[in-house]
Design brief:
The complex is a heterodimer of chains A (326) and B (77).
Chain A lengths: L11 E3 L4 E3 L1 H18 L13 E6 L4 H14 L5 E9 L5 H16 L2 E6 H5 L3 H7 L6 H19 L4 E3 L4 H13 L3 H12 L14 E2 L7 H10 L15 H16 L3 H20 L13 E2 L6 E2 L5 H10 L2
Parallel strand pairs in A: 3-4, 3-6, 4-5, 6-7
Antiparallel strand pairs in A: 1-2, 8-9
Chain B lengths: L1 E6 L4 E5 L6 H7 L7 E5 L2 E3 L9 E6 L16
The chains are: A alpha/beta (326), B mainly beta (77).
Protein name (chain B): Sulfur carrier protein
Organism (chain A): Halogranum rubrum
Keywords (chain A): ATP-binding, Metal-binding, Nucleotide-binding, Transferase, Zinc
Chain lengths: 326, 77
């Protein structure tokens, strides 16, 4: 089967658009979607200059998503003096699994000559996820602890490195799953937060002084296409499932979404198109009303670690305390 | 036509498809979605809606199954 744009063999078919593309035209189309998203969301501010550059910290896990993101950002902005990029890798203390993906990160950063920083749960928090999963003092899924720790470290180190933005490799499937989960859980406040925290264009978001703004330049690209891109470009991506993975609800939603996409191509795109519009409306409604009860919430510093929190002690410190008590 | 479907790192299946059968039909027979794998023929990815023209394919699992290995965790609660 031929490429729609040239006479070479197609390597993929996109059911949602009907396109058949060869390797070169497929990779170009991924690059184009990522660059368009960066432009449309105004990720690069007009006042960034070589003298006063914008700093982007990229969450680089070594999985295909963050590896593809880092590769495309380097190709697009690697020589642009208005932007400084730093790759940040977090080692959760998962033996075997994370060691290999850290190798992938180091290899990529060396190849791209990009500054690379590695931080570990063990050094920063005094815990390893392998032990946390075993002790499990709160009777939760391992991902529930890990997500809190990872967000805390990403935020704090991005801040330490002077980041203007924190970029992550979330793809279209990730975002459509999160959208469906928020919707099915009936959590409109979370939808509002999602808009201001990471999916709104930078011109449309509410200023959030307490947190480093997030951006997800891959969020228009289906997961399969991200993986295919990594495969075709022979990028050093590590594709193995985390041994502690256990987010049952997300797994159920993923299966449902793949089924819908097969029967109705374009479902993921239309979920996100509608969700983004609703999320903006929700964000406008809930701004300054963080509890939904007319009372705003004051954020302050955690009295133990200094992280931003609405309580005296942040969630991360409370979890660490529970783990250490076992 | 009989085709060997080799899911890389997992099991092999023998699948029969009609003369109009596509690679997507092979995937359906082994209960995989075209959105979670790529089909490789002689090491090259092929469009899933293409007619099967080989007796051996490799299937590469591309995406995590049901986990949240997203780089900053989930943004839903």
């Amino acid at each position: 089967m031929e490429c729609d744009k040239c006479d070479r063999d197609a390597v993929m078919h996109a059911g949602y658009s009907g396109a058949h593309l060869c390797e070169d035209h497929f990779c170009a189309s991924v690059d184009k979607r990522v660059r368009r998203r960066i432009r449309e969301d105004s990720m690069l501010p007009a006042d960034a200059t070589p003298e006063d550059p914008e700093t982007w910290v990229i969450g680089l896990s070594g999985g295909k998503d963050s590896v593809v993101l880092t590769h495309i950002l380097d190709e697009t902005f690697g020589r642009d003096p208005r932007i400084e990029m730093i790759a940040l890798t977090i080692h959760e203390g998962i033996e075997g699994y994370r060691d290999k993906s850290v190798d992938a990160c180091v290899e990529l950063a060396e190849k791209l000559e990009m500054r690379h920083e590695l931080v570990t749960y063990e050094d920063e928090l005094g815990v390893k996820m392998d032990d946390v999963a075993e002790k499990d003092p709160m009777d939760m899924a391992p991902c529930a602890y890990c997500g809190v720790f990872r967000r805390d470290l990403l935020e704090n180190f991005a801040d330490e490195f002077g980041a203007d933005k924190l970029l992550t490799g979330h793809n279209l499937d990730d975002e459509a799953e999160t959208a469906l989960m928020n919707f099915l859980e009936g959590d409109v406040k979370q939808v509002a937060k999602h808009f201001d925290a990471s999916i709104g264009g930078f011109d449309d978001r509410n200023e959030q002084d307490d947190f480093i703004p997030r951006a997800k330049p891959l969020r228009d690209v289906p997961e399969k296409e991200v993986a295919l891109y990594a495969h075709l470009k022979d990028l050093p991506a590590h594709i193995t499932e985390c041994p502690h993975a256990s987010e049952a609800f997300r797994g159920e939603i993923q299966q449902l979404m793949l089924k819908l996409e097969e029967n109705h191509p374009g479902t993921r795109h239309s979920i996100m198109a509608g969700y983004e519009e609703l999320a903006q409306l929700a964000a406008e409604r809930y701004r300054g009303d963080k509890d939904g009860d007319g009372e705003g919430v004051d954020l302050n510093e955690c009295e133990r670690c200094g992280s931003t929190t609405a309580r005296d002690v942040c969630r991360k410190c409370r979890l660490i305390e529970a783990i250490e008590a076992v | 036509m009989d085709v060997t479907v080799e899911v890389v790192g997992e099991e092999r299946h023998e699948v029969s498809v009609g003369s109009e059968g596509t690679y997507a039909d092979l995937l359906a027979a082994v209960d995989l979605s075209p959105h979670e794998v790529s089909v490789l023929v002689d090491g090259r990815p092929v469009p899933e809606d293409q007619r099967v023209e080989t007796d051996h394919v490799k299937v590469l699992r591309l995406i995590k199954g049901g986990s949240a290995s997203s780089p900053d965790g989930s943004e839903s609660r």
